[in-house]
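From the pipeline queue, job 12 of 40. The input is one protein chain; the requested action is below.

Action: predict structure.
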Amino acid sequence: MTSMSKGRDQPVRPRGTTPSAIPTPVGATAVLDQHLRFTGWSREAEELFGLASEEVLGQSADAVLADTETGAGISAVGGGGAAWSLGTRPVRRGDGRPVSVSLSLIPLALGVDATGWLMTAMDAELAHREAVGRAMLDGLDREAPVQLVVYDTDARVHWINSAIEKQFGTPLEDAADRFVKDILPQGQVLAEADGTATSVEEIVQRVARTGAPVVDVRYRSATLLDPRHERVWSCSYFRLQDGEGRPIGVCEAALDITDRYVARQRLALLSRASGSIGRTLDIRRTAGDLAELAVPEFADAVTVDVFEAVLSGQEPQHHGTRPTLCRVIHRTDHAAAKDTADEALDAVRLRCLAENMSVTDPAARVLALPLKARGATLGVVAFARSRHADPFEQEEVQLAEELVSRTAVCLDNARRYTREHATALMLQRDLLPRTLPQQPGVEVAHRYLPAAGPAGVGGDWYDVIPLSGARVGLVVGDVAGHGTGAAATMGRMRTTVAALAALDLAPDELLARLDDLVARTGAPPSGLAEAEDQALGVTCLYAIYDPVSRHCVMARAGHLPPVLVTPDGHAELVGLPAGPPLGLGGLPFECADIELPEGATLALYTDGLVEDRQTDIDAGVRSLCAALAGPADDRLDKTCDRVITRLLPQAPEDDAALLLLRVHALAESLVATWDMAPNAGEVARARSLSRDQLAAWGVDEAASFVVELVVSELVTNAIRYGGAPVCLRLIQERGLIVEVSDGGHTSPHLRRAAMEDEGGRGLFLVAQLTRSWGTRYTSRGKTIWTEVPLSPAKLPVTFAGEQFEL
């Protein structure tokens, strides 16, 4: 074992001595008598001057040591018995080469009366190196700002310089022969270059064993002189070896980087804040992001309080009184929870709100800052530290202000989103049907889930529209975009579809007119850079189901096709031609006419039900078919719930709508149809057939009278103005429906007949006697329909300026 590793058995070095890192050069000696003649010549002198002793002894020093440049000797040495230095001079060696030597003379007593001199000589270059080396070691020991520690191979402290003593308050005699963990028990290695964290002892032993240096190890500890404040050092380690290459210890060089480390930690905290605060548009989660970032790195406790109005998306209005504060987050480092002063938090928080500026309480170690964004104060944030921690310094207050400022902007964004989301949701709920009409021959169930993601409420919509002849119109659509604009556009589209459906248009014709309308209103005026209308790109599916024939005619504009579930539980997509989204203009839409089996279910939906960031739309449609397949539920609402639970176990990122329609055919006994020949004699036959059918249905006389009158007028008009084929149909469903079809395409209209006119009052009487009436067109002609209540009250009829009751 080397001498350094045996330090535990040696006395501690006194201050001012250093490890023998630089060898001391060996000097040459010679003895001169009182006449300055050599009487002694050492072996080291022979090596330095290149002269053997027999060549020198008895010779004068002036001859042997003459200055090669000036020729001066040393005979000018005076008496007085004091040692003195001759300085450095060039002399000539025995081989003729010059050598620069440093000479000194020390007086000797050679006898009772005799006097002589001891001459010491040293190579001037080696002497200079020795002086520089000793000065360097002395400087590292006493003056250097770098902190140095020499460990033995067992990682025990062997030597420390004065910088260590000054900062740590530990003298060398107290540190020698001890481990660092015993001197600074609270210290810890933060991280090595590879990110690992070990002890100083392990690092020293590894360097001593492998010889590989370790650079920039971060070490943190308090000191004996300042036990309440931790410092951070950057330490590097390298192995010390003897002349034969054997390890004798490890040297540690450390720099105090506390200020730089704290500054970097603050910058890192701000950098993390930009990526972690405000990741969502949720007020509570945004406040939680700040608390998670600050505890325990910046503070031991954080509270965030906002005004009550902020939670609902509104701006706080003071009006001379302090609004109610609501605690949205309180986070505490449990290790220091008992040391935080809650009562101090409350006091500083109130001062902060009163003064609307940052407030600190150094004694309580509390810092409170207002949440201010865009000129409004949203609340207050309070940071607290335990009584054993440092109070908040000015630089930390500035850091907190930056963190809180970023948080306030994110909270204000969340507040604005909350307000817009609530507005859009309210608008959407007002525009969507709250209840769907119950139509003959169909069961209807529906579900709507608004978007829960940051995009906000979308523009999906659905509707069930009663049509003439006991038919029902089904519509589902999706507006591009989110927010109040999408909700408003959705309402506009739903109203437009309902208005067009009232015209009894076929699905392809309705979509074509809707497409033209969107294309006209969506394009900005020429030369104006206005925002694109959100109606552009809207998808829509429109279907008409007739419970009499069990036929369903449908067309789609860029929308997903419906799913048909047969009575045996098989579910598949309907082969419906795909039309372009609305607003493109100029492209046709195609209808598909399918006969639905008794008890079949038709599912109409939007893409939010079957598509998200993790699910491909094709896979989502397959999942929808799987969820719909199987035995039918007794209630259609149960099927809706099952589909939603299966496809959307969590709140959707986009709006999702589902409309289910289970179809049934009207009983044949409730429908009567007759073909009429195109001649005037058929009118009486039509009245007779209607009267008999109404009697079979048990309709009272009042209703029967109205129906006969309506049939007479409509059949007469069909034969006179429409032409073959003429057909009469009666339907009993929540009243009496009278339909007369003909081959004409001329639109009937009401007109006011003069007193002397013999005709022109037919449709006027029909309009007066029925609940509603209208016309729908088909490829073969048109149908005029009316609805008559089963038990009509006395109907007021105005004729020739006078009012009558029927």
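Job complete. The two ends are 130 Å apart (CA to CA).
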